[in-house]
Amino acid sequence: MNHCFLMVQVLPAWLRLSRSERNRLFESEVLSLLPKHPGVSLRHFDCEAYTALCSDVLMLAVPDARALHFFVEALKDSALITEPYFEIRQIIPAWEDGFRAYEAGQEPKVMP
After folding, report:
1. 108, 2 in Cβ contact below 8 A?
2. How far apart are alpha carbons 31 and 34 in whole angstroms?
């Protein structure tokens, strides 16, 4: 696995915050975790206008399962989850182009 999609749902406590406070909290509670977890990168997708399944998707690129596990544990300890401002709805690990690696008879490549 080299990617993981965290489907999260925004909660009313988050929406009550000003937009500047939301930005500050996201930086201090989520983005600040990245330097502590080498090889992990994050992209954020806002999807609440298009689906009721979740409000946001966090896409993590990870070097291995251990890095993913440790990052998710740290995220669960953050105010984003403990306050709570968001709840994690689903965690979907995935291999990018995993079928191609299988067809080529090799293991999926782990990100450097």
Report:
1. yes
2. 6
Q: What type of residue is 16?
A: R
User: Taking Cα atoms as reference points, which of 7, 35, 34, 29 lies closest to residue 17?
Assistant: 29
Backbone angles phi, psi at 105, to 5 degrees: 75, 25
Chain-centroid distance of CA 55 in Å reads 13
Q: For residue range 39-76, what is the model confidence (pLDDT) as tens digits?
A: 999 999 999 999 999 999 999 999 999 999 999 999 99
pLDDT in tens, 81-101: 999 999 999 999 999 988 887
Residues with Cβ within 8 Å of 12's Cβ and at least 6 positions away in sequence, in order, are none
What domains are defined for the chain? 3-103 (3.30.70.3420)
